[in-house]
Structure prediction request, 235 residues.
Amino acid sequence: MRLEAKDIYAGYGKIEVLHGASIRAAEREIICIIGPNGSGKSTLLKAVFGLLKPTKGTVSFDGKDITRLEPEQKVRLGIAFIPQGRNVFPSLTVRENLEMGGTVLGDAKAVQLAIEEALDSYPLLSRKIRDRAGNLSGGEKQILSLARADMVKPGLILMDEPSIGLSPRMIDEVYSKITEINRRGTTFAIVEQNARKALSIAHRGYVLDLGQTRLEDTGAELLNNEEVKKLYLGG
Prediction:
């Protein structure tokens, strides 16, 4: 199993948000995590990435316990995190954002090669290469954040609300890129309010509610689950 977060308890200060939540993702799998606002979805991603330290439970990646590792250490293991909203450096150009993403590669030539490959894969960014990232549209910023993560070929990408605030066209483009990257071998764990869109591409999905994992099934089965339809998919 590529990722396994088991019986995670975590929160903010004295406020516990997660009460034993669990998810797992196999190699080359897309999983999505859905649920109502306040259910702990984003908190779970932060606990997996190390931005929050679980008070109980374990996080493992490729069989290695990474529960207590810092985010920088997890990045070196091949885990990328794309947070909701502020996912680019707005004062830097598109190229400079890509350069920042490539720092983990360590070698200037490797970074330059990775940028060239990214611009080939993401022609939208090639046209905007000298623009400040802060001047991009919301969808363009999300594409840039994906390209920046993808250029170092991570084993796992964690994404928090990739479709929030985007037009339907840009949502389709972002999800098309997610499936393309996944086909090349990267595992995804996606938190998403747009449950129907996320489940449509997910191999497996989880429903979180009140800090616990309430349901786990294939994306297709959750899409057809009458309770999920009623509560999370608008009937």
User: Anything to note?
Assistant: Residues 168-183 form the longest helix (16 residues). The first strand starts at residue 3 and ends at 12. The chain is about 40% helix and 25% strand.
